[in-house]
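Late entry, written up from scratch paper. The run itself happened at the end of the previous shift, but nothing got recorded in the book at the time, so transcribing now.
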Amino acid sequence: MTAISLSLSHLSALDLAPPELVSVAAAAGYRTVGLRLNPAAPGAISYPLGRGTVALAETLRRMKDTGVAVYDVEFVPLTPDIDVGRCASMFETAAELGAQRVNVSGDDPDFARLSANFAGICELAGTFGLAVDLEFMRWRHVGSLPQAAEIVRRAGSSNGAILLDALHLFRSGGSAEAVRALEPGLIHSVQLCDAPAEAPPPDRIIDEARNHRLPPGQGELPLAELVKSLPAAVAFAVEVPVPQDAGISPFMHVRKIREATESLLTTQLMGDITD
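Output as recorded:
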């Protein structure tokens, strides 16, 4: 790795609408952000930013004023009955925002069908200049790094890759060694956070991921080993939601997690240089 490219994932401050997120991210020292244009689950928070809306215009204005760019948009669950064509409007918005990538999940037990839908969404996204990252999560059908790699390989799309979330990697039994063993090009985006070494009970896995992550360096996950195992050109994001009842402003929170993440990454970069 030769440079730090750090983005603020929307989950880190999901109560902030996109215009406010851009402004807070800029003040806290971020270069890019991710935006949740579609909910991760039915009824969950999202900000569609339809074309021609005041919200989209205000987001674009603040991006121009601050210099903050949009790295990725989310979230598309690849369910058995997904209508890929209906994602076009979201991709149009993503393209207008200048986003590079779209995040999707694997929510279909039929991996042949899922691979075909992943290929289809990659093809559609490509017409808008977008790439697609498949994120694995322990509670979804694609719940591990090997499963995500299988889907991406089956699809064979040049703009398809894996989104690697550090918490999901280690909670699903993955390791830095498994990441290092992957062929180049499978991982383009990485979300960093920390957590205790011991996983919570199975019925609290989702709650941990959505509400109880820790800033990098404040837990016990082997993040240094993971960073050293990653390809040279990955883009990093920090994904740590504001702790419940933390009594801290979104600005203070996202600045804190940026500083923690950059400390981790800078230490590893210096290690690469001196080794």
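The radius of gyration is 18 Å.
(Scratch paper discarded after transcription.)
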